[in-house]
Every structure is written in structure tokens, then in C-alpha cells.
Amino acid sequence: MEETVARTVLCFGDSNTHGQVPGRGPLDRYRREQRWGGVLQGLLGPNWQVIEEGLSGRTTVHDDPIEGSLKNGRIYLRPCLQSHAPLDLIIIMLGTNDLKRRFNMPPSEVAMGIGCLVHDIRELSPGRTGNDPEIMIVAPPPMLEDLKEWESIFSGAQEKSRKLALEFEIMADSLEAHFFDAGTVCQCSPADGFHIDEDAHRLLGEALAQEVLAIGWPDA
Predict the structure, then answer these.
(1) Which residues contact 205 (CB under 8 A, 6 or more apart)?
(2) What is the full per-residue pLDDT of the chain (220 aa) written as tens digits?
(3) Which residues form the SGNH hydrolase-type esterase domain (predicted)?
């Protein structure tokens, strides 16, 4: 009897993929089963492998002048893809950190950063038999108005964050990638205004499981 090949999903994101607890430091993290990646794994079942690659402070394509080049998602993406290949699906949920005041980026250019990552994925073609994997762009939920002590870092980002979903959807359509707006199912926590809490992780994981299964996978 031929063994079923598990499908592999890579979740590439920032602290909201890593599972940072709202209002706490980057080392305060929800457990695997509480994070949206873990929820996704549980719902997809044993024939799927969900890999979490979340980093607090990660941007799409920018070196952080304070936290360093390691926060640049584009630099890490290629070795990450090669490390985990072959991949069936890559879910990208980034953009929040690009809205920090230090980068001075409009929402349209944040979407362009996402587009660069999609191009990089397709250039490498880390799917099975050297093909392109499926790609899903996820817009993070908009920030709340009250960002507590992080207000100075994200000054002006609240309004921009509300425009990310439309810009990401336009980018996804132009690149023929899948798209999901996380803001349709969850919101950021009032504890800090830009991280999602345990309930939001669960809701996002449940919604993404439906989106993943709806792609219409061929038999392995």
C-alpha cells in the first residue's frame, strides 16, 4: 500500500505568527496549540505538516535600523524555503512592522514588499518536483487606536493598517496568489493594540484551515 505523502505548510510571519502574548515581551509566547499555526495543524490533521516561522519585529523587505538586518523577512526567506522544501503552501502574514514610524511606508509600498517575497518564492520554486508552491497572502488585522507605550513607535500607523487588506488583496490578485483578510475574523487585543490574543489565534487558525482546504488539492 502506497504511503500518503503529507502536505507541508510554511507560516511565514512576525510576532503574531510567533504567538507573542499581547502587552508582554517577545519571550512571552502562547503554547503551540494556542497559536494559529497550531490550531491550523490540529484542524488539517496528520496528513499535513504546519511549520511556524514567526519572528517578532520581522518586516517584509527592510533592514531595521534599530533591531538589525535579521528582521528583514526577505533576507531570511530564501534559506528558510530551502531548509523546509519541498513545500505545498506558504502563508505570508507580514506588514505590521513595516508601519513603524521609522520606515515611513504607505500601505501600497508595504504591499509591494509582500509582492517581492512572492516573486522570490517563485524564483526559487521550492514546491514538489521543483514547481511553485501555493501562496496565500494574509492581511493582519488592523491596529487599535490605543497602542499604549508603543504609540511613539507606530505613530500614524493605525490609519495605514486599516488600508493594508485592500492593498494586499490587489497585490494578491495581480500575482494570482490566494488572499485572506484576518480582520474579517479577529481583531487585535486592547492589551497593546497590535498583537492578537488566544481567542483571535483560534479564530484565525479555524478560518485559515477552511481557506487551505478550499484550495482544491490534487490527490497526492
Answers:
(1) 35, 36, 37, 38, 39, 40, 42, 43
(2) 445 668 999 999 999 999 999 999 889 999 999 999 999 999 999 999 999 999 999 999 999 999 999 999 999 999 999 999 999 999 999 999 999 999 999 999 999 999 999 999 999 999 998 899 999 999 999 999 999 999 999 999 999 999 999 999 999 999 999 999 999 999 999 999 999 999 999 999 999 999 999 998 886 5
(3) 11-202
| Residue 198 in grid coordinates | 488566544
pTM of the complete model beyond 0.85: yes
Angle subtended at Cα 143 by Cα 149 and Cα 203, rounded to the nearest 5 degrees:
120
The Cα–Cα gap between 133 and 74 comes to: 17
Strand, helix or coil for residue 211: helix
Separation between Cα atoms, residue 60 and residue 77, nearest integer Å? 10
The C-alpha cell of 147 is what?
Answer: 497602542
Question: What are the chain's domains?
Answer: 7-213 (3.40.50.1110)
Query: 35-62 burial by CB neighbour count: b if 16+ within 10 A, else e?
Result: bbbbbbbebbeeebebbbbbbbbbbbbb
Instruction: Enumerate residues 6+ apart whose C-beta is below 8 A from 146.
Output: 190, 193
Distance CA 116, CA 126 (A): 16
